[in-house]
Amino acid sequence: MFSWSGNYWPENSWNYDTENLALQVGEDIIQPVKTVRDLGVTLDTELSMQRHINKVASTCFHHIRRLKQVHRLLGREVTLKLVSAFILSRLDYMVMQC
């Protein structure tokens, strides 16, 4: 349980030091982190999805480069199915999270 003397909110409650903010649960101390990954989505302390977008874009470009190397061997139909599996599925999942 948290308690402060005096007012309900501590003075300058919006100006706390997030670098030294920690939570103690029983004997365990939980330290804050700059990013967290939940259900495949990476969020930062500002709740922006910039890091997640960068990761998805990087992964998609990696798969596009790999498909470019082998697309002539696979044929058009197989290549389109792989694009759908590797790239469109990631973009669809990201859109559903927003």
Brief summary of the model shown:
This protein is an alpha+beta fold and 98 residues long. Helices cover 48% and strands 14% of the residues.
Report on this model:
The chain is an alpha+beta fold and 98 residues long. The protein has a domain at 33-97. Helix content is 48%, strand content 14%. The chain has helices spanning 50-74, 76-97, and strands at 23-25, 28-30, 35-38, 41-44. The protein has a two-stranded antiparallel ribbon. Strands 3-4 form a two-stranded antiparallel ribbon. It is elongated and about 60 Å long.
Topology, element by element:
Blueprint: E1 23-25, E2 28-30, E3 35-38, E4 41-44, H1 50-74, H2 76-97
Antiparallel strand pairs: 1-2, 3-4
Helix pairs in contact: 1-2
Give me the oligomer status. single chain
Strand element count: 4
Q: Helicity range of the residues?
A: 40-55%
| Unreliable spans | 1-8
Strand line-up of the largest beta sheet: 1-2
Q: C-alpha Rg, in Å?
A: 22 Å
Mean pLDDT equals 77
Query: What is the CA–CA distance across the termini?
Result: 34 Å
Determine the number of helices (DSSP H or I, runs of at least 4 residues): 2
Order of helices and strands: EEEEHH
Based on CA inertia axes, which overall geometry fits? elongated
Q: Report the sheet with the most strands, covering strand number, pairing sense and barrel closure.
A: 2 strands, antiparallel
Beta-strand share of residues: 5-15%
Quickly give the structural class.
alpha+beta
